[in-house]
Specification:
binds adenosine-5'-diphosphate, five-stranded parallel beta sheet, 8 strands, alpha/beta, globular, Rossmann fold, binds zinc ion, 210 residues, 9 helices, 47% helix
């Protein structure tokens, strides 16, 4: 059983790498951000409660996130492990996860703050298959057409603007980065330089997982 946590600031490349690691390992990707956006779109009670925090660039309360994860791990595809993308983001979330399943690897993708705004503000993704692109660093090969599925509409996230990114980076430094020590003390923490070509980062992550 392998359970991986992809850790890092907003825009570090967690989602981009998660898709590739899923292709190599077969571990299902669990993105709390994607789950919350789906809940907001559907207008579920979770979505209604989470939206105000997401719009403000603040973390959604731990109880909401932990309930989502408790439900997700019950699904049959979770039996051989999962790859968590953007979860846990606080020490209480990490403590809750430790009671649910054993985390075997934490992959910390490190990107300096100075690069984050440009990464986030240039991000767009496919509304059909979820593939993530960037205006400058990873554009679609044909403008307006998703490379992966060829059919989805390409969209920007409402919270991917400069003001909200600064809030999200603040939340990362204050509430999420303390988790690095928490995991480092448990000997499962791998630091990866995320300020390089996407393929090189994937190779290093796969090495760390061996
Ligand atoms: P996260 O899931 O950590 O928020 P994403 O995977 O969505 O990050 O990446 C944020 C943006 O940066 C996307 O537009 C993506 O295409 C781009 N990106 C991802 N990895 C890199 C990289 N190594 N170099 C440059 N841009 C990248
Ligand atoms: P990014 O990696 O670009 O920050 P995500 O898609 O992971 O974006 O998260 C988007 C928003 O969803 C966050 O700003 C936060 O409001 C909320 N969110 C996602 N995951 C969590 C989590 N584990 N704990 C609290 N809030 C979360
Ligand atoms: Zn697509």
């Amino acid at each position: 059983m392998t359970s991986i946590v992809l850790f890092g600031p907003p825009g570090a490349g967690k989602g981009t790498q998660a898709t590739r690691i899923t292709q190599s390992t077969g571990l299902p990707q669990v993105s709390t951000g994607d789950m919350l956006r789906a809940a907001v779109k559907k207008g579920t009670p979770t979505g209604i409660a989470a939206k105000q925090f997401m719009d403000a660039g603040q973390l959604v309360p731990d109880s909401i996130i932990i309930d989502l994860i408790k439900e997700r791990v019950k699904e049959p595809d979770a039996a051989n492990g999962l790859m968590f993308d953007g979860f846990p983001r606080t020490v209480p979330q990490a403590e809750a996860l430790a009671n649910i399943t054993e985390v075997t690897h934490v992959i910390a993708i490190e990107v300096p703050d100075s690069k984050i705004v440009e990464r986030i503000c240039g991000r767009y993704s496919c509304s059909s298959c979820g593939a993530v692109f960037h205006d400058k660093f990873n554009p679609t090969s044909t403008k307006g057409i998703c490379d992966e599925c060829g059919s989805g509409e390409l969209k920007r996230r409402a919270d991917d603007n400069e003001t909200t990114v600064k809030q999200r980076l603040n939340a990362y430094h204050q509430q999420t980065s303390p988790l690095a020590d928490w995991y480092e003390n448990r000997g499962i923490f791998h630091r990866i330089d995320g300020d390089r070509e996407i393929d090189n980062i994937t190779q290093d992550i796969l090495l760390a997982l061996k």
